[in-house]
Amino acid sequence: MQRRLPDYLKRPIIDTDTTRTVRKILKTKCLNTVCENARCPNKNECYTKNTATFLIMGNNCTRNCRYCNISCNRPEPLDLNEPKHVAEAVRDLGLKYAVITSVTRDDLHDGGAEHFASCIYEIRNICADIKIEILTPDFKGDTDALKTIIKAHPDVFNHNIETVREVFKTARPQGNYDCSLEVLKYIKENSDILTKSGLMIGLGETFEQIENTMADLRSVGCDILTIGQYIQPSKEHLEVSKYYTLDEYEDLKTLAGKIGFKSFQIGPLVRSSYKASDIVNVS
Predict the structure, then answer these.
(1) Is residue 2 part of a domain?
(2) How wide is the angle at C-alpha 225 spanned by C-alphas 219 and 227, nearest 5°?
(3) Which residues of 7-35 are buried (b: 16+ CB within 10 A; e: fewer)?
(4) Which of 160, 171, 199, 244 is 20 to 30 A removed from 265 (C-alpha atoms)?
């Protein structure tokens, strides 16, 4: 049954000189954003603030998660100029905080870890004082790949658990809940990098299962949590089982604090990189 989208989840179309400038810079540098590819509801708000979340390593993912709007097709060859172009876009946008994510690239021997690292190095070559957050796939738990990330030392390492254990295999058939936890644990135990994770709700989970997932994330030292409402991208994707109320989001905020998260963004339209700089107190 298709559920009607609540009014508090609807966003107006915004078209300003700033949003057009952001689009022009991204087009000139031949860059993708998760804002466009994943149909993020906050895209225009972020564009008006002269920011975007860069999507590296192509438009095609090697995994077919049942909630995600990004295509699962044969991946493109890596663009070796992409790290430099990302860095130039960061400079041209005047960012103080850059967020980089990627499609999953299981076809690459390191899952794309070195490409992430190259982006970090290139950005810091151009903008030495910038803060960098990366949102990565699980790299199949490969510790060599994670060591490459640690050496590049982003300010924040984000890997999304995405959903509760009981729903995980339905939503992410090629992923592994425990592997995701181990990835976050490895980064926390082997570096001083802040760790971050997030989940979507409205996929059939219970409140207790959300609480258990929060506890699992804290048990591996996860510093920052994001929670937002799942919105079905198309009829081919998983249906929404529930739209959480604004009061329920307040309950989840209280619970996150109780479980031990000092930093979190929880709300209907919260996404992994939404107001990412605010959550780590970047001025």
Answers:
(1) no
(2) 125
(3) eeeeeeeeeeeebeebeebbeebebbbbb
(4) 171
Would you list the DSSP string of 100-166?
Answer: EEE---TTSTTTTHHHHHHHHHHHHHH-TT-EEEEE---GGG-HHHHHHHHHH--SEEE---BS-HH
Number of domains observed in the structure of the chain: 1
Q: What is the pTM of this model?
A: 0.87
Q: What range does the domain containing 79 cover?
A: 7-279
In a domain, 16, yes or no: yes
CATH of residue 60's domain is: 3.20.20.70
100 belongs to a structural domain: yes
Distances (CA, A) of 118 to 114, 153, 157, 217, 228: 6, 11, 15, 28, 30
Q: What is the pLDDT of residues 162-214, one digit of tens each?
A: 999 999 999 998 899 999 999 999 999 999 999 999 999 999 999 999 999 99
Q: Residue 1 domain-assigned?
A: no
